[in-house]
Amino acid sequence: MKYENLTVVIDRITYSNPQNGYMVLRTSCKEFPQGVIVVGNFGPLHPGEEIRVMGLWTNHPQFGSQFRSLEYKTVKPATLKGIEKYLGSGLIKGIGPVTAKRLVGAFGLETISVIEHNSEKLISCPGIGKVRAEKIITGWSAQQAIHDVMIFLQGNGISPAFATKIYKIFGADSISRVSENPYILATEISGIGFKTADRIAKEFGISGADPRRVEAGLQYLLFMALQDGHLFLTNEELKEKSLTILEIAEKEAILQALSIQIKKGNFVKYDFRDRELIYLPFAFRDEHGSVQRLGNFLQNPSHFDRQQLITTVKASMGNMGVTLSDQQQLAIEFSLKERFLILTGGPGTGKTTTLRAIVEAQQIMKRRVMLASPTGRAAKRLSEVTGREAKTIHRLLEFSPSDRKFKHDENDPLST
Q1: DSSP, res 30
Q2: Residues 141, 161: one domain?
Q3: pTM of the predicted model, to two decimals?
Q4: Among residues 3, 56, 250, 390, which is most buried (max CB within 10 A)?
Q5: What b/e sequence results for 110-136 when a residue is b if at least 16 CB atoms lie within 10 Å of its CB, and e otherwise?
């Protein structure tokens, strides 16, 4: 795979995704008189800007030849036409096409140098007063700050896509925030994990036992435990795993970092049956909040006549034409009289048949039944085995992507 470098001037931005910085640029290039379509993830860009891109040629099935940018940096324009177009693009507040033309007419190729280093000369340009000059200086400084941030981040191995995300969150403070603690990238930026942040941190000379690194490593391990389905790690598990992933021998550094994280409220320590359990705060709240709610939920169990339950179970088996084991029948009884039930079992133990029988029994009791699963695939499977409509949990509770809220919650529960 051969990478190339191109210097291009942006003629037009034909597509821009503000979420990830992906753009399609129509550009002019000396080596290619017909122009070049450049695609990739960029920071803030405007028509008239000159950029140097490193990447490779690709062939889009619909749009043809394109240059895929992997890295880029802005280049100050060096021609009168380029300077005028660059300044007049709307990139800098206080400068429009008319003002850009006046500035270039007054200062020529030195226009950018005057703005940067001799801004007091701006008022000598016709039509530029003190107020306009101050706007130009402020706008130029803000734009240069963005470019400085992008160059700094890319220079430290951060892709343009992530550099754009970082700038959106930290703004002009991006350089100072990342320099002070590169591990905030793993905790604050979606898509950047501990290992990437750790690689960047090494570029800054952060040592293996640095408290910032150890604290970030501990947090990473708890997040990874969540990915594996664990809400916590024991104190001992966390210490052992951290020694491995951090590749350090200083147990004291880990103990100190763990203590600091607990004091800061970044971790929760919970003593349970002679074990210290370490949680991320939201995982602790979710688990213990669920326990409390279920406890309240089960305080008032339903009351049914035992014979009525047995009759309903037998009726459900009769309707289905199956004979169920004692355990399966007991599961159906529990589903009828209790307010909450967990049905578990290995492959081939009869969970699907039991589920169908539970639905049948609920219908015999004239109850309203709703079926839901975490994923679309699981909901489809649930619908297939029960012969009834099943929805995802998000759809059942009417989740709104725009405001990321559920219509039905504790204040507006589903009707039963």
Answers
A1: T
A2: no
A3: 0.64
A4: 390
A5: ebbebbeeeeebbeebeebeeebbebb
